[in-house]
Specification:
Blueprint (H helix, E strand, L loop, with lengths): L1 H14 L1 H6 L2 H17 L4 H17 L6 H14 L3 H18 L2 H21 L5 H14 L3 H18 L5 H10 L14
Helix pairs in contact: 1-3, 3-4, 3-5, 4-5, 5-6, 5-7, 6-7, 6-8, 7-8, 8-9, 8-10, 9-10
Length: about 200
């Protein structure tokens, strides 16, 4: 990646001066995203890449612009996936879907699907089964926003079955929220089953 990526990093850092002086939050956010993404690609200090990507998202939110926010969340999700942070990946995929899904942003939805596939592969390769329910919840939301209702319901059912099987009750509020988003009745809480 060498000199080309280093040149991109230098240009992005240099271009921060003007929008910072003028208070142009969108430009600052995009530059910080470029910096974070490039630092991650260069295998530079991971904490510096984290900081730049966090700042990019924070700045985008302060700019009150939603158009680029899913892309920035997906960029951070990619960085978190490489760093083996499945909870962070899930949070960013959820955030990207929350904006891109209702707005019908097809490109971010396609990228979210790609990130979901990579997260699924990582979880299966590492045998980290405690993340399966979370992965199914993201899959349900993604399928819902891609207008694939049958697949969304199947993924939601798989998430519920996994939560019940391993007693992962901390995910119950997420399961209930996803069911509501899909237009499904709320799942029966475990303490009321058989009553």
């Amino acid at each position: 990646m060498g000199s080309g990526a280093s040149a991109v990093l230098n240009r992005a850092r240099a271009s921060l001066d003007y929008p910072t002086q003028k208070g142009r939050l969108l430009s600052i956010g995009l530059d910080q995203c470029t910096i974070g993404h490039t630092l991650a690609a260069l295998d530079a200090d991971p904490a510096e890449a984290d900081t730049a990507l966090d700042l990019a998202i924070e700045t985008m939110r302060r700019a009150s612009t939603m158009y680029f926010l899913p892309v920035v969340h997906l960029t951070r999700a990619q960085h978190r996936r490489v760093r083996h942070d499945p909870a962070g990946v899930r949070a960013d995929l959820d955030a990207a879907l929350a904006v891109a899904g209702p707005a019908g942003m097809r490109t971010p939805l396609a990228e979210a699907a790609r990130q979901w596939t990579l997260a699924d592969q990582l979880i299966r390769a590492t045998g980290y089964g405690r993340r399966e329910a979370e992965l199914h919840l993201v899959e349900a939301r993604l399928a819902h926003h891609q207008r694939r209702p049958d697949e969304a319901r199947v993924a939601q059912a798989l998430a519920e079955a996994r939560i019940r099987a391993i007693g992962q009750w901390g995910l119950w509020p997420d399961l209930t929220r996803v069911a509501a988003e899909l237009g499904l009745p709320p799942p029966t809480p475990p303490e009321t089953e058989g009553a």
